[in-house]
Amino acid sequence: MSMVDKARxxxxxxxxxxxxxxxxxxxxxxxxxxxxxxxxxxxxxxxxENLKNTRR
Length: 56
Fold this sequence. Notes:
Layout lengths: L2 H24 L2 H27 L1
């Protein structure tokens, strides 16, 4: 896994967590759901990269 991919996935996870939290605080359920989905997307990408590294 390249450092760029790792940083990109970490940024996506952080952005998702932040958006989810902002949605919770403001009561915006749609923003909260989008943030949760974005975080999960980053988690899945990271898991895929880890799997690729394990197989090498």
